[in-house]
Write a structure and sequence with these properties.
The structure is a single chain. The chain has 347 residues and is of the alpha+beta class. It is 23% helix and 46% strand. A 6-stranded antiparallel beta barrel has the order 4-5-8-9-7-6.
């Protein structure tokens, strides 16, 4: 039986053609990467210029763009953004990454932590095992934004006012535009797991050193109107357009105390304070209201009246009630117990 014929060798021409095609592909991909790099740099500059024109302060000390061949990596050093109302965000190093096949989806990270500055309270330094965010669908209103933090600590700067949260095992925040069939609406989700807080009055005595958890699920109508030169301006424009938040679910657990939000609707008044009503479930309400009275947060007669309201609606250790925000006050049923939450400082 004859031996099988030896395998045929590729001709030099075919090898040259294959190498030529590969070389052309590499050159084309390299040109496309450099074009994308320049486009990212131009859009970053244009975005910063637009924010400055709107009254924001935007700056960074250094910028590097790399990631060839498959990614765009943008690194900003000493990055800072500040709005006209005084809110600011700073990071010694801010990293952004997008893949070449999805150049409008960005992953952001602050490996050295970040600092947010409150207009009245001052700076708070945030560090943790993980601080990252994602930004996509940039043409949506609002764009898709997600934040995730693990093992976070919150440290006010020297001379700054205390911050309610000292640490948290996990923090998540998500902002999304609703599907087209829903209409002009945006979704807001917030979750804080196993946080350590500095609480006083209503929850401080009950929570003690026990962890707190926060959940919030809301829908913002007229979301396209939520824009302006600064935070107060955006809120005012949104409110003027008839915007309000529909609360689907929420709650705060601190030790044995619980405030569970079953439903509600909120908006913002001209004084910058919340206006609306929440249907809530309260656990350990009489004890919490007693703490308010003992610390002098509300007068004894108001605490007694609010306790009577809670006890009248209590089933076991949980009371069902309404919390109203109106005329700058927070009321439990008909009893005023505290100022309404302030969304922004009016000019």
């Amino acid at each position: 039986m004859p031996d099988p014929s030896a395998p045929r060798k590729l001709s030099p021409l075919r090898i040259y053609i294959a190498f030529g095609i590969a070389l052309v592909a590499i050159i084309a991909w390299t040109a496309a990467w450099f074009w994308a790099r320049n486009e990212a740099q131009a859009r970053l500059d244009a975005g910063a210029a637009a924010l400055r024109a709107a009254g924001y302060e935007v700056a960074w000390k250094g910028r590097e763009i790399g990631g060839y061949p498959f990614r765009l990596n943008v690194t900003l050093t000493d990055a800072r953004i500040r709005d006209r109302s005084g809110w600011a965000l700073e990071a010694p190093e801010l990293e952004g990454q997008a893949f070449m096949h999805a150049p409008t989806t960005w992953l952001l990270a602050a490996p050295q932590g970040l600092t947010f500055v409150r207009p009245v309270g001052g700076p708070v330094r945030v560090t943790g095992k993980l601080i990252r965010a994602s930004l996509s669908h940039l043409t949506n209103t609002p764009p898709n934004l997600s934040f995730e933090g693990e093992g976070l600590t919150f440290q006010p700067a020297a001379g700054a006012q205390p911050f309610g949260l000292q640490a948290a095992e996990r923090v998540e925040f998500h902002l999304r535009q609703a599907p087209a069939e829903v209409g002009d609406e945006g979704g807001v989700w917030l979750s804080v797991k196993n946080g350590k807080a500095q609480l006083s009055g209503l929850l401080g005595r009950i929570a003690g050193e026990k962890p707190i958890s926060i959940e919030w699920d809301g829908r913002m109508s007229k979301i396209s109107a939520f824009r302006g030169r600064d935070w107060p301006g955006a809120v005012r424009n949104w409110t003027a357009a008839g915007g309000q938040m529909s609360v689907k679910r929420g709650g705060l657990t601190a030790g044995d105390a619980l405030i569970g939000v079953n439903s509600g609707t909120l908006r913002v008044g001209p004084d910058g304070r919340a206006v609306g009503v929440l249907d809530v479930s309260l656990r350990q309400a009489p004890r919490a209201l007693g703490a308010l009275s003992a610390t002098g947060t509300i007068p004894q007669d108001r605490a007694d009246a609010a306790t009577a309201v809670a006890q009248a609606r209590q089933d076991g250790d949980v009371a069902r009630a309404t919390i109203n925000f109106e005329a700058g006050q927070t009321t439990l049923g008909p009893v005023a117990i505290a100022p309404a939450p302030k969304v922004y400082e009016p000019n």
